[in-house]
């Protein structure tokens, strides 16, 4: 690569919150790197199938946008004493037939021969040898079709391994069903159809570029149907990075999909098709797409599959409780100081040991409510989950208080509630008796804070959960745009019983996603919306309906 000075990123390259932060942190943009990539692909690569077989590659707009972002952004590296690529990982989510596999093959060949790194090792990886071979076949045939590359590169007909003798670089297949003993791999990897990749393959590939100056782990896929699998975790992680919820300037998230909450009617609109399919009109013919849509409506199962494969809509039984747009409309600029002296109800979701604890104050003004949250976490938990949530960054910005050691310090929680009672007029402290009986008893005896038990049954949660949803939809609830509370609100899911009552459901303990702030808010809201006695018949009956 050239040693010229990159420039400030142009406005067209600032596409999400992560880009805004990267620019502020000093990341720059190198147009010459982008030009080099585009020139290599359009001058030396040939398509090998379909009506354009044998013709030079003509990149679609979405591909140019992808390569411009992926290769254009750079940052200064003290370790290498030069500018290196900002992005070391990329998640590309795009439906079928948009040119995903050829895009992966073009990227792999560029890394192999034109990226300027001697001894480069590039891998086409997938769940099994068949899927990895599909992507790798595109690369092999592109080489065979190219007058220049067919002379520069040697292909092993038995294994498909592509070898560049001049730089001693290789490009080969890595199959998830044959990875035993493959730890210690070193290079860049392109993973196809991530939605069927398991954690075992992911662990093998996780650190394979650690010793390289500009490694790349590129994952490409359509949406899947396993909400607990590796792919959904990667999709959610990328979305959180793009939205600024998690700080990871090395991760590029490219997502072409219909809104995940799109109705069946919206899924039939041309505008929705275009949003999810950047290749519509080029690699995808409009007539074919319309035919596939009509055919898919023959059954619920067919239409579900069509939405997943052609609109990139994840399929699962679990769905987000609140929509991002609705939650964002409820954001407001207020602080604790603005609420000093006002009446409030306080919800306390107290963790037992290593998890997050939340205190949420709910202030009522006629039919309008304000949420004021506080979060706490043991400092050792931050280290254990450094790559799964932005705990340290939230702490640095004052949104998360850490307690010393590897278990929660209850004295810190007790002190905070006591301080809040000095600042606000706490009407009730609402708590789960299973975890917080002793602590709240001290607060009542020593600081005269009234307390109310809230047993964690679906019957207790049903009314305040439904009411909180209504308040959000009607914008009668406001929050101070607290990043931890927002992070939790946007991945909260619910479960329901046979009577259509529903409640927020906590993820498994091993899941880094937490909803403690939402639980605390619902508990406090339960008393704020009904100061005169119980919310429903069920509150005084220990009947668990689900």
Helix and strand arrangement:
Elements: H1 17-24, E1 28-29, H2 31-44, H3 61-72, E2 73-77, E3 82-85, E4 89-93, H4 100-113, E5 121-126, H5 129-145, H6 149-152, E6 153-155, E7 162-164, E8 169-175, E9 188-192, H7 199-205, E10 217-221, H8 230-242, E11 251-255, H9 264-267, H10 270-276, H11 286-296, H12 300-311, H13 324-329, E12 343-349, E13 357-365, E14 368-378, H14 379-384, H15 391-396, E15 401-403, H16 410-423, E16 425-431, H17 433-447, E17 451-453, H18 458-473, E18 477-478, H19 483-489, E19 493-496, E20 502-505, H20 516-528
Parallel strand pairs: 4-10, 4-11, 5-8, 5-9, 9-10, 12-16, 14-15, 14-18, 16-17
Antiparallel strand pairs: 1-2, 2-3, 6-7, 7-8, 12-13, 13-14, 19-20
Tell me what the structure shows:
The termini are far apart. The relative contact order is 0.09. The chain is 38% helix and 18% strand. Helix 11 (286-296) runs antiparallel to helix 12 (300-311) and helix 18 (458-473) packs across helix 20. Strands 6-7-8-5-9-10-4-11 form an eight-stranded mixed sheet, with helices on both faces. It has helices at 17-24, 31-44, 61-72, 100-113, 129-145, 149-152, 199-205, 230-242, 264-267, 270-276, 286-296, 300-311, 324-329, 379-384, 391-396, 410-423, 433-447, 458-473, 483-489, 516-528, and strands at residues 28-29, 73-77, 82-85, 89-93, 121-126, 153-155, 162-164, 169-175, 188-192, 217-221, 251-255, 343-349, 357-365, 368-378, 401-403, 425-431, 451-453, 477-478, 493-496, 502-505. The chain folds into three domains: 11-255, P-loop containing nucleotide triphosphate hydrolases (Rossmann fold), CATH 3.40.50.300; 264-311, no CATH class; 324-540, Nucleotidyltransferase, domain 5. The protein contains 20 helices and 20 strands. The chain is α/β, with parallel strands linked by helices and 546 residues long. Helix 7 (199-205) links the parallel strand 9 (188-192) and strand 10.
